[in-house]
Amino acid sequence: MGNFLNLKVKVAKYLEVRENAKSYRKVWNEELRETIVNELKKIIAQINLPAEIEIKEQLKNLEAIALTLGREESGIYEELSNNVKRRFIKYNGMLVFQQLFNGKIMISIMYPFIEGLAKPKPPKTVEIIRPEEFKPAFLERYMDIFLKEITEWEDYDDDIPHKIGFQTNFQQSGVVDESDVAAKEDS
Phi, psi at residue 66, to the nearest 5°? Predict the structure, then answer.
């Protein structure tokens, strides 16, 4: 039998990481969640961004803060009969700060999408950080990335070949998967 030194080092690291999750959750609950909410409110007021802050706390220790641009009628509708129209709702996107299972914070972007017209583009992970690494000044950078990504989605055009327009009416399922389009663009 060996002296298991290598395994003892790994056990110590494992126990340290598990303890970190507890301390990260404590920081989130005692200060970080409130700091993020307050700073986001200041930023959206300063830049006149029509946004709201939603706190998702149904799952304890997996809470999230979402800066949401809301939802609205997309202006697209399907004529079902002479006087009946089915309107498509557009979700305008979100910047999300979510506590992960290990207490770290994931910052991600949920792209806009039109319900029933296309599958949403997969979320973009901006960064995963430990709570002690977070600085309120980072919020300006996160907002910059978010606004750039959302604006690019809104300004979608033919700079890069895309499957849009009447072609989507001939899809077998009737739904275009934006992730398939993105994968084709990358190849």
Answer: -120, 125
Cβ neighbours of residue 74 under 8 Å, at least 6 residues apart? 87, 88, 89, 90, 114, 117
Q: What is the pLDDT of residues 69-92, one digit of tens each?
A: 999 888 888 888 888 888 889 999
**Amino acid 76: pLDDT:** 84
- Both ends of the chain: CA-CA distance in Å? 52
**Which residues have C-beta within 8 Å of that of residue 111, sequence separation ≥ 6?**
93, 120, 121, 123, 124, 149, 150, 153
Which whole number is the average pLDDT over 40-50? 96
Q: For CA atoms 39, 107, 113, 167, give the dihedral sign.
A: positive
Q: Are 52 and 70 in contact (CB under 8 A)?
A: yes
